Amino acid sequence: MVTFGPAIDVRPLFPRERRAMLELLGGLGHADWARPTVCPGWDVHDVVGHVLNDHMRRLSSGRDGYGGAVFADDETLPVYLARVNEKFVRASRQLSPQLMIELLDHLGPRLDAMWAARDLRAPADVNVSWAATDLDNPAWLDIGREYTEYWVHQQQVRDAVSVPGATEPDLMAPVLDIFARALPHALRTHDRPEGSAVHLEVTGPAGGRWGAVRRGGRWRMAEHAGEPTARASMDQDTFWRLATRGITVEQARGRSTVSGDPELTTAITALLAVVA
C-alpha cells in the first residue's frame, strides 16, 4: 500500500491511552461532566458517550459481524454518522458517569483483543475515507484511525476541564503520523507533473516530517520525496487541531510557515483527518 506510506502498529498503545482517559474521568467532579467541549452541542458527558458508542459499534461489527444501523435513502456518510452518533449520545445521557467509566474499562480490553487478532496488512474492516475514497485500505490504517479517535476525544475532554496530559511523544506521535496519511487525499484535486513533491513538517517532541509525491497519476506518501514543489510547517498542537477541525483552517494557516506552489500549500494546510 505505497499510497498510504509505511505501516504503523498502534495496538500496544490502546491500553495506555485508555488508562490515561479513565484516570482523567475518575478525577472529574459533577460540574466537569457538564462542561462544553469543542464538539458543537456536546459536553464532556456527551463526548464520553460517543467514545463508548465507538467501542460498542466496533465490537458489534468487527467481532460479532452485526450490521447495526443502515443508511437512509440518499444519506451521505457524514450525514449518516452525524445522525447515528447524535442518536446514541442522546440515549447515553441517561447513563451515569460512573457507569460509563465502568463500561469503557470493561469493553476496552475486548477491543484490544479484537485488534490483536487482526493481520495489519489485510483489508480494513472500515476504509478511512479521509485517506482515500477509491482504494481499499489496509487494516493498520483503520486501526490507527481508531486510536486517533480515542486520543483526540480525550484531548477534547482535557481541554474542556483544563487538565493537560497524554501528550507524551510515544502516545501523541502516532496520532500525528496517522493524520499525515491524509496528505495525498488533501492534494487529490491538484494535477502536477510526474515526480512533483510536497513536504510537511510538524515541529515539537511528537512531530516529524512527511512527504508526498505525484506518481502514476495520483499523489502517494513518500519517505524520500525529493526536492519539494511546496513546503508547509506547523507545530504539533496546531497540526492535530487542524486535522480534526478543533481550529479553523485560517487559524492553522496563521500559525504555519509555507513556501512554494501556493495551490499545494493551500491544500496541505487544509488537511482533514476526520469525516466531515
From TrEMBL:
InterPro entries for this protein: DinB/YfiT-like (IPR034660), Maleyloyr_isom (IPR017517), MDMPI_metal-binding (IPR024344)
A molecular function (GO) term: isomerase activity
Pfam families linked: MDMPI_N
Key words of the record: Isomerase
SUPFAM superfamilies hit by this protein: DinB/YfiT-like putative metalloenzymes
Domain of life: Bacteria
Domain Mycothiol-dependent maleylpyruvate isomerase metal-binding: residue ranges: 16-157
Annotated protein name in UniProt: Maleylpyruvate isomerase family mycothiol-dependent enzyme
